[in-house]
Design brief:
The chain is an alpha+beta fold. Helix content is 27%, strand content 27%. Strands 1, 2, 3, 4, 5, 6, 9 and 10 form an 8-stranded mixed beta sheet that branches.
């Protein structure tokens, strides 16, 4: 793709997000590489920053086999988190006003205390740089019609970022086994899914290491103070206004959110 096409696609996805509408899959209209898709996502991000958004972290997507199978996407991706995506425990999340076709997923969030710049980052480096881990709901969204995405579509669309909420508990990563910790997700009082840390590339730590090294090849660090969403441990769950969800993670705590 040329620069003009990349800019046009980024502008189109930004407009779709602002206007709450979907667009036809980019992969049906263009021959685009994953590298092209990341440049499109950066154009979308630049539009958000120009409108006042502030980057506060990054997210890793498509890490679990369940999510890969559901979306027919078979490699991880990443996107940028901005301050206007973040909600606090107990705060209502206005998905009907802000999102188009939302799906919730339970995750473990890493809060960093040191910068990480790959390549060459190890799991030990990630753990040493992590201040704490927290339970999290990410509510993903797609500006692509009916979630008809290939990897290039979701990458271009900021890894299908929507909104997220962090729980009110935080623990040192050294105090919990992040590979074996169990997750239980409830929706409207019913258990709908269970998972474990190993569902995300074998461990959420592997996911953050992958991200640090992938971004490092472009000279982009993970920064102290940033929130890193490490990827879903359970299948995506469609949600709508009126739903209430809770995620509980063994050894870490829980997060809950009511959708409006």
């Amino acid at each position: 793709m040329d620069k003009q096409q990349i800019s046009a696609c980024g502008d189109e996805l930004y407009a779709a997000m602002v206007e709450g509408k979907t667009v036809a899959p980019l992969t049906q209209r263009y021959e685009l590489s994953i590298d092209d898709a990341y440049h499109i996502s950066l154009q979308m991000l630049e539009r958000r920053i120009a409108a006042g958004a502030r980057v506060i972290g990054k997210k890793i997507g498509v890490t679990s086999k369940a999510v890969q199978a559901m979306l027919n996407v078979h490699q991880p991706d990443f996107g940028y988190l901005t301050h206007d995506m973040a909600y606090s425990q107990g705060e209502e999340m206005p998905i009907s006003a802000k999102l188009i076709q939302p799906k919730a997923e339970g995750e473990i969030a890493f809060i960093l205390k040191k910068d990480l710049l790959g390549p060459g980052i190890t799991n030990a480096d990630v753990l040493a740089a992590t201040d704490c881990v927290m339970p999290c709901f990410e509510v993903v969204d797609s500006r692509i019609e009916n979630w008809q995405i290939k990897i290039q579509d979701t990458v271009a669309d900021n890894a299908s970022c929507g909104l997220f909420v962090l729980g009110d508990s935080a623990v040192s990563p050294g105090k919990v086994d992040l590979s074996t910790c169990g997750m239980v997700v409830e929706k409207n009082g019913q258990i709908i899914s269970t998972g474990a840390g190993a569902a995300a590339l074998g461990s959420p730590v592997n996911c953050v290491t992958w991200l640090a090294n992938t971004l490092g090849t472009f000279g982009i660090p993970l920064k102290a103070g940033e929130v890193i969403l490490s990827g879903s441990l359970v299948p995506l769950e469609p949600v709508q206004a009126g739903d209430f969800m809770t995620v509980s993670i063994g050894g870490i705590g829980s997060a809950s959110v009511r959708f409006t």
